[in-house]
Amino acid sequence: MKSKIYVLIMAMFLVSCGDDFTNLSPISQRNVDNFYTNANDFVLAINATYGGFQANGTYNQSYWVMFEMRSDNTDQGPDVTGLANEFAVVNVFTENALNQFVGDAYRDSYVVITRANIILDKIDAITMDNALKNRIKGEALFLRSLAYYHLAIAFDKVPLILSEVTDINAAVVQSNATEIMTRLATDLTQAVEFLPQTSTGVNLGRATKGAANALLAKVYLTLGQRSQAEAALRAIVNSGQYRLVDNYANLWGVANENNAESIFEIQYRAGGFGTGSPFTNYFSPNGNLQNGLGNARNRPTEDMWLAYEEGDLRRNISMANSYVNPATGLTVDAYWILKFRSEPFTNNDSDLNWPVFRYADVLLMLAEALGEGTEAYGLINQVRARAGLGPIDASTPGTFAEKLLQERRVELAFENHRWADLKRFGVAASVMQSKGYSPKMLFPIPQREIDVSPGMQQNEEHR
Fold first, then answer.
1. pTM of the full predicted structure?
2. What residue ranges define each of the domains in the chain, with the CATH number in brackets?
3. Which of 120-146 are b and which e, b meaning 16 or more Cβ less than 10 Å from the residue's Cβ?
């Protein structure tokens, strides 16, 4: 029954999960007994797995709430009443196990994992083109790993489920983040072998070797395995597939999607299909949009504004400190995100993609893997030069880790890296305490999971 339910969910979701790789026909009358029988079924199934990252519990909402708003980069905005309180408590570390965004993240991440597991369990039994089979397997391994990476950073101890669940009474065993990341390293290494170097044409936006290596490097850095991370990152650099775009402004907006710096993006398509992105509406101030409503969520903090050095070209491209209310013509002082500016088709329906990995992140991760030295500073300075800033070196004030973390903050602002970075660098508690918070390192396991899973243990900070 559980399998049948997921297929029904998938049947409803199998519309465009990207700009080009779309479903060919509706499958509303199929079920688990006559699906997964040919190559086209598995293409549809992997498309639905990508589609899981367009859910409210993943990139549409929960991930930026839990990985940006949790940090010193953003807050929930001036409204802390009603539904806005669900945002506010995440920002100030007082959320409980009933929090909507935390619950959505847990549930929807496991939807992705479940879809990937079914594909991986069933695909080897099907006769189909071997190259296509391997590509789909690589995509499923990558997408499952991406979901588990977020769960491990957010919750630490969650069930590591690697095959289709057919018994709803099966025992639930929690694995810790180290165990999960170790498994992800194995899966992503295999994904690198299966995936193509590039994805173009109708497949533009699908996972590639570069995407799998970028996530693999992030996993290795989280595990403290710097030499393994270096190898994965050098594979990306040496592939010649990516480069920094010349102008930081040319990374953003619908016209710049899937650019030369992009390694992996969550693909969206506007037009009333249910696959448009909501970020422009969420992040724009009230009264600031021609089409739809601005919700003024994920608002940059003053500390974020002040984090940029004098002359850093990225600040006024990434964020603003005022806007003109079109209804009144008056200028309103307010911080807001510019990176996700677009003209939505309708409310919460934009073509704008979400950047998951890009080449600047790779260069900064490679500097992290190498540690302080001439090559590492050279990598950081490539990123700084584009921002209009001079080079730094060992004589620049601060430790190497402080300088690198600062560069990651301003380069990757609002792209869901900050909370994981603070944790990986071991400074999440001290940084957030310096801003006046009493931080918790983990989110609570959703109460519904505790209630239905005997033996599931709540994170100690939330007991």
1. 0.93
2. 1-195+432-463 (1.25.40.390), 225-267+357-426 (1.25.40.390), 279-352 (no CATH)
3. bebbeeeeeeeeebbbbbbbbbbbbbb
